[in-house]
Amino acid sequence: MKIAYFDCFSGISGDMCLGALVAAGADFDRLKDMLSELPVEGYRLRREKIKRNGITAVNVFVDLAEEKQPLRHLEDILRIIDGSGLPDEVKEKSKAVFNRLALAEAKVHDTTPDRIHFHEVGAVDAIVDVVGTVLGLHLLGAEKAYSSPLPMGTGFIKCMHGIIPSPAPATLEILRSVPVYGAGVQGELVTPTGAALISTLAEAFSGLPPMTIETVGYGSGKKDMEHPNLLRLITGDTADSPLGVPAGAGGHKEHGHEHGHQHNPGREYK
Question: Would you indicate the residue range of the signal peptide (predicted)?
Fold first, then answer.
């Protein structure tokens, strides 16, 4: 069985996912062509190769036209996804990511998912990030995805609502029952979109499962940091029953990170 393992040593965001998928072998031109099935306009998808701390990575950009993108409700986004000609599996998983985002935002703002204005995550770039990530895994032929535990930043984040703490409240809501650890880094490492993607798509959270590695790709984040701001994606063949915490499962053991950056790859998270 072919799997994809997201090694989130510097966190995860939608654009980092796209870059890692392309770097790991997802055909960029095919990805662009299939994303054009989405009934949205006003953007151009492009990529570039860069180096962070000497590591070659792919940086993906969703360039927006000058006109302002509308604020969208959950119903609007689901309609956009349903109105595409993408494979049913891609549509269903993409809608599940946005449903998870809406539930978290509704909890934070004390309202209902249907009344949420998505602001940043309702813009066309986030729609492209989410659907593009699900589609990229489909193009790679990955039957299942897994992830490392997620590093949390600290400090404050500037957003549409003003200054909020890091991790963002919506991010923490999304990551209930997902193993996380403090990375001791100022800033936002895991975005709400990245949290919703990985918590929806990952079968479990653990160290690297037993696998025969086929490809390794690095997707770049946009911010410069002292450490390499990269997401590593490893694909390969594995046994049918890798270990880890099922996404959404309640409770897990302490995972004993040292200084927030290391974990024992043989340790199980239950």
Answer: none
